[in-house]
Amino acid sequence: MTVHIGAKPGDIAETVLMPGDPYRARWAAETFLQDAKLVNEVRGMLGFTGTYKGNRVTIQGSGMGMPSLSIYANELMTEYGAQTLIRIGSCGGMQPHVAVRDVIIAMSATTITSPSSGIFKEINFAPTADYALLAAAVAVAKGKNTTTHVGGIYSSDVFYSERPDLDEQMVRHGILGVEMEAAELYTLAARHGRRALAILTVSDHLQTGEALPSEDREKTFGDMVEIALDAAFT
Ligand SMILES: Nc1nc2c(nc(Br)n2[C@@H]2O[C@H](CO)[C@@H](O)[C@H]2O)c(=O)[nH]1
């Protein structure tokens, strides 16, 4: 076990899905995995390991924000040997052609700051998804009738933005959506030579103010989990 994960050695699979919400980790494990068992509940950040079509997989919550994700991703990679980490989450849409219920497969993740900013100093590192994983997710998504966008997202440190001028520049430069975790996941995966990807459902929209009704969230979230699982084992 580690400082923040109570799983025993061998309890965590090489492939890990990371929703922000631990209750979504439980729902996804119960819905998609066979023989799912709880392997972590330290601080309520639930983690489950089971199999998907015969492949071993762990679904571990990351919490909200890059500092929280950084703790779990670091420990999963350095202490449990996770090789493929896929964030499955929600985001806010930032382009008129990106609608609520759509899925975004994040090629890159822009930040103002991140937990890794301190070590990069004057380097503007470009957090980037693993290409093979991204290509597999795009191929799987094509087989579903979910509208999918592939491009850059913005990993913010705040949900309540005080800088509309920054949001404006992100929109101007084609950023598809905003969330709060992917950039640090991509940076840590690059640091540790692992594969990472973020697949996001658009659950609210910054321009239209629309928000996904709660009854729709489970369906769109389920589609995204399936894309992640099928892409991970392609
Ligand atoms: N900053 C930000 N985060 C968002 C937004 N919509 C969603 Br869903 N999120 C994500 O949802 C959580 C906040 O509700 C964080 O973990 C973010 O990744 C949004 O409009 N803005």
Automatic annotation (TrEMBL):
GO MF: purine-nucleoside phosphorylase activity
Binding positions for a purine D-ribonucleoside per the UniProt entry: 4, 179-181, 203-204
EC number(s) reported in the record: 2.4.2.1
Record's GO cellular component terms: cytosol
Residue span, Nucleoside phosphorylase domain: 16-219
Substrates-to-products reaction catalysed: a purine D-ribonucleoside + phosphate = a purine nucleobase + alpha-D-ribose 1-phosphate; a purine 2'-deoxy-D-ribonucleoside + phosphate = a purine nucleobase + 2-deoxy-alpha-D-ribose 1-phosphate
Keywords recorded for this protein, A-Z: Glycosyltransferase, Transferase
Record-annotated site: Important for catalytic activity: 217
Keyword Transferase: yes
GO annotation (BP), single: purine nucleoside catabolic process
List of residues binding phosphate: 20, 24, 43, 87-90
Active-site positions on this chain: 204
Keyword Transferase: yes
Record's subunit section: Homohexamer; trimer of homodimers.
HAMAP family linked to this entry: Pur_nucleosid_phosp (MF_01627)
UniProt xrefs under PANTHER family: FI09636P-RELATED (PTHR43691:SF11), URIDINE PHOSPHORYLASE (PTHR43691)
Family note: Belongs to the PNP/UDP phosphorylase family.
Role this protein plays: Catalyzes the reversible phosphorolytic breakdown of the N-glycosidic bond in the beta-(deoxy)ribonucleoside molecules, with the formation of the corresponding free purine bases and pentose-1-phosphate.
Protein known as: Purine nucleoside phosphorylase DeoD-type
Source organism (scientific name): Roseobacter insulae
